[in-house]
Fold this sequence. Notes:
This protein has two helices and five strands; from the N terminus they run ββββαβα. By secondary structure, the chain is an alpha+beta fold. It has one domain (about 1-75): CATH 3.30.1320.10.
Amino acid sequence: MLKVKLFQRGKRGQRTYRLVVAEAKSKRDGKFTDSLGFWNPHTKKLKIDQKKLADWQKKGAQLTSGVRKLIEKEK
């Protein structure tokens, strides 16, 4: 099963996250299938490729709870 997850980047105290499509059982920072955008919690900037997200959801990819919360806040 595919999930849209947050992929952690950066060093401690300066984290940024990429929104990626990955296998549900893969590690948090492991292999991923596709990158959909990024989130910077320090500047509160969220950028998502909505077209890619819609395509992956049609293919059966599910959002994790963290990604779902971010998208709801953005709307």
